[in-house]
Structures are given as structure tokens and as C-alpha cells.
Amino acid sequence: MSQLPPHDASDPDPLDPFDELVANETDRDPDLAVIEAGSRTLRAQGGPPQAEVPARPADPEVAEALREVETELAGRWGETKLEPSVSRIAALMDLLGEPQRAYPSIHITGTNGKTSTARMIEALLGAFELRTGRYTSPHVQSVTERISLDGAPVSAERFIETYTDIKPYVEMIDAQQEYRLSFFEVLTGMAFAAFADAPVDVAVVEVGMGGSWDATNVMDGDVAVLTPIDLDHTDRLGTTPGEIAVEKSGIVKQGATVILAQQPVDAAQVVLKKAVEADATVAREGLEFGVVSRQVAVGGQVLTLRGLGGEYEEVFLPLHGPYQAHNAAVALAAVEAFFGVGAARAERLDIDTVRKAFAAVTSPGRLEVVRRSPTVVLDAAHNPAGARATAEAVREVFDFSRLIGVVGASADKNVRGLLEAFEPIFAEVVVTQNSSHRAMDADELAQIAVDVFGEDRVQVEPRLDDALEAAITLAEEEGEYAGGGVLVTGSVITVGESRLLLGRG
Question: How far is Cα 32 from Cα 455, in angstroms, rounded to an integer?
Fold first, then answer.
């Protein structure tokens, strides 16, 4: 494991009582003080920092080569068609010389918050001068986003080169196995190979789905992070949080450190049992670490976090919502655990470095403001739990007098639950569909929306560009200064395509 980073000599006593934090963390929805209308307006005008994602390569030859790679990858099983086994990816890793074992790693699973948490972990590690590799999914606009080095997506040229390098080995595995390697398995192989080639000091890896049989689970994470578990992919993972936790806890390896976000009781029990079986050390949000306090601020929030080594005060996070504060607490604990805080030593990390890292965090497509007058916000919530968190954050951050929703969802999701979560904050909803083959037909989505919102509050626009235009027109009916807004949500793909249409690609 890498050398310990500088620490703060003014650390509080690690044995100080933690009663106040436990009390704060017992209730996920604390009754925050009322924010003055003027400050809300300033926050809405400020918005989050502009997070960039890769555009298409400017060089026509590179752009064409990237399209060819994307076409070859798209010809494989998609991410929702799975054969629950790691045999194919394990065989590929064997041929490649086990690149995933060339560096220590932090492995992340859960239902919501994985990508934002991964980005925060990456920012913290980078601030402590470690070279990082990050693998996350899905992407917002470009497939190259999924593999990052030193905090930035790999270039199109490097993505193409990595694919070309491993392609012969992929074809060998395809010929040997009953099923060809899937889209996600090939990308996972590319990520592990790219990280070994860099080389990185540490990899931050997000599972694709589940845990036990996810392609990423051929690695041995020194730290296993479990973000909140809720209902999603119930046809494959289980119908209760406890059942889903059985699969997700599969990333917990022998002797690892487990960073456990607050969970439903049945899910927590499953993970804790797995940790005992693996002789793993567990740190639990609300007990060993957590959010001590949070205050809404211009462009984000100011946090006091309790880590494994002490308190970190006055931490500015340029992301909105209580859930992002909890993601920050999880990320901090994960990095502390990686550096041995709480085990090898009981001292907090250098607080100025922690502050600098969190202040630089971005999370594209997560409550991202992409237009003003009216304000248009993008958020990739795609299941009921994510939608509830987004709705809560919207209420807290923005002072919309009339909010119009644009929803395009995947057919395999709990769309009714998602719409029900947004119903209290949407004055009207424009239902649409994105270009993915997984997209729910707009008319089918409209039928569900009418049940939830009533016919008078639902408009159908099958084309996403028409849906955006219709929603902006509805929001503008409030007048220039009346506080109308648009929230585009329901799918990462819907958000990514909207981002392009609104000129952010």
C-alpha cells in the first residue's frame, strides 16, 4: 500500500464521544433551518462548477477509429444481458498477466451514489499525489469517460490503443468460451490493462451490477465500499434490500476493510455477516464515521465530517443535496482506510489537502445546471431511491415556483416509483424517450405518468429535442423572473443526450 500522507498534528482525540454524530445520523432527513429566499436565488444563479465530459475527437481519423471500436463493442452482449459468471473475465485476466493485481484498489458497489463517491475518492487520492485510475459506468456522453487516469477520461487515442492491444486476447477467449465476452467485460479488461500500463498507484473501481459475479470482481479490493442499497435490478439481484445485499457483499474480500454507508437493517445484517466470514474490518456510517453537520452554501454545501481519524471542519463540497454529503463521508472514510487511518494510526489526514480535494470535485449529470432563464437542471436519477434523493435536493437548493419535468426512462426500471417520487415537485411532466434500445416507449411511459400525475399535467413528446423545447416553453410561461425551471431526468442516457442538445457536449 502507498506511503501514508501527511497528517494534521492538531487532530482531536480519536476516542472522543461520538454521541452527537450518532444522533445526527440516526435520521437521514434532518429538519434544516429555513433558508432566506434571497440566498436561494443567489445559489440558483451560481450553480455548480461546470463539469466537462469528452467531446468527439476533432481529428476525423481518430473519430472514425473510435466509432469503429464503439461499433465492435456494441456488437457484444449489452450491459443488461448477463450470464452470472466471472469465468470469461478471469480467463482474459489470466491471458493478460493479471493486470488487476498490479496495484492496490478500492472497490465500490451499492445502488445509488457509486459514481459520485468514486469521483470523490479519486479526487482525495489525487490530492495526496497518488496516480489514480478510475473505472465507472455508465457514461454520460462518451464511452471514454468510463476509464480515467489522473482524474480525467483517457483520450480517444489511448482508448483505441488499449482496445487494439487486448483485442487478440479477447478473440482468443471468445473462441474458448460458451459465450463471447460482453461489452462490459471487454471494457473492464481494458480498464485493468490501462491502469497497469500507466501505471497507477491505486485503482478506484465501480461495479457494473451486483457484486459477486460482476466482471470487476476478479480484483481484490483492499477497501470495499458499499453505498446505500435499495431496490434496482430486482429481476437479477433480488426483491428486498437484504437479498440484493447478498450479491453486493460479494466484493468483500478476505481481510479487507469495509466502508458501509447507512443501510436498511436487512442489508446491513447481510454485509456485516459477510464481513465476519471474511475476517474484514468494518467502519459504519453513523458510528465510526459520518456527517456531523452540513450547511447549504453558494454553489454547494459546507460540511463537518467525522472520519476514522477525527473531525474535518469547513469542508466545501460543490455538489448539492444531503445524499452528496453522505457520499463525501463515505469517500473520506474509504481513503482514510486505504491509508491505514483507524488501523495503523488514529490521526486524521491533512485537513487542507482534504479541503482542496473536495472543493475540486465534479459529478456531471448530477444536479448539473446547464442553462439559465429558465434554469435547466440535469440529473441522472433512474430509480425511486435516486429520485427521492434528487427531489429532496431540488427542494433544498432551488426556489422554483414552477418546475417542469422531462422524463425519459429505461423500460426495465421501476418507472412508476420514479414518477411517484417526482410528482410532488413537478407542476407538469413532459414524457419522452432517448435513443437507447432500452428506452421505454413515450406513449407507454405517458400511460403510467397519467396514472401518477393526472392527464392535465402530462405532455407527450417522443423526440427528446421536442420534449426539451416544450418543457422550456412551459417554464417560461412563469415569466423571466418568476422562477420557472426544468429538470431533465430518468436515465443517464436521457441526461447525456440532453447535455449534447443543450450545447454541453
Answer: 34
Pair 468, 498: CB distance under 8 Å:
yes
Contact status, residue 251 vs residue 217, Cβ threshold 8 Å? yes
User: Which amino acid is present at 150?
Assistant: D
The closest alpha carbon to 338, from 384, 281, 266, belongs to 281
In sign, the C-alpha dihedral spanning 181, 184, 186, 191 is negative
Any long-range contacts for 377-380 (C-beta under 8 Å, 24+ apart)? 377/485, 377/486, 377/487, 377/488, 378/487, 378/488, 378/489, 378/495, 378/498, 378/499, 379/487, 379/488, 379/489, 379/495, 380/140, 380/489, 380/491, 380/492, 380/495
What lies within 8 Å, CB to CB, of 72 at 6+ separation is: 163
In what helix (H) or strand (E) does residue 304 lie, and over which residues does it extend? strand 300-306
464: region left, alpha or beta (phi > 0 left; psi from -120 to 50 alpha): alpha
Overall pTM surpassing 0.85 (yes/no): no
- Residue 456's Cα: distance from chain center in Å? 34
Cell numbers representing residue 405 in the block:
419535468
State the residue for C-alpha cell 470495499. 224
The grid coordinates listed for 189 are 479488461
Count of alpha carbons within 13 Å of 55, Cβ hemisphere only?
Answer: 10
Characterize 38-74 residue by residue with b for buried, 16 or more Cβ atoms within 10 angstroms of its Cβ, and e for exposed. Answer: eebeebbeebbbebebbeebeeeebeebbeebbeebe
Nearby residues of 453 by Cβ (< 8 Å), 6 or more positions away: 419, 423, 426, 428, 429
Asked if 171 and 155 touch (Cβ cutoff 8 Å), the reply is: no
Each of the 505 residues of the chain gets a pLDDT tens digit; together they read: 444 565 555 554 444 444 444 444 433 332 222 222 222 222 222 233 334 567 778 889 999 999 999 999 989 886 655 667 899 999 999 999 999 999 999 999 998 889 999 999 999 999 999 999 999 988 888 899 999 999 999 999 999 999 999 999 999 999 999 889 999 999 999 999 999 999 999 999 999 887 888 999 999 999 999 999 886 555 565 568 888 899 999 999 999 999 999 998 889 999 999 999 999 999 999 999 999 999 999 889 999 999 999 999 999 999 999 999 999 999 999 999 999 998 667 789 999 999 999 999 988 888 999 988 899 999 989 889 889 989 999 999 998 999 999 999 999 889 999 999 999 999 999 999 998 888 999 999 999 999 999 999 999 999 999 999 999 999 988 665 568 999 999 998 899 899 889 876 5
Question: Angle 228-410-488 (CA atoms, 0-180°, nearest 5)?
Answer: 80
- Other CB atoms within a 10 A radius of the CB of residue 171 amount to 12
| Structural contact between residues 124 and 160, judged by C-beta atoms closer than 8 angstroms | no
- One-letter amino acid at 414 equals N
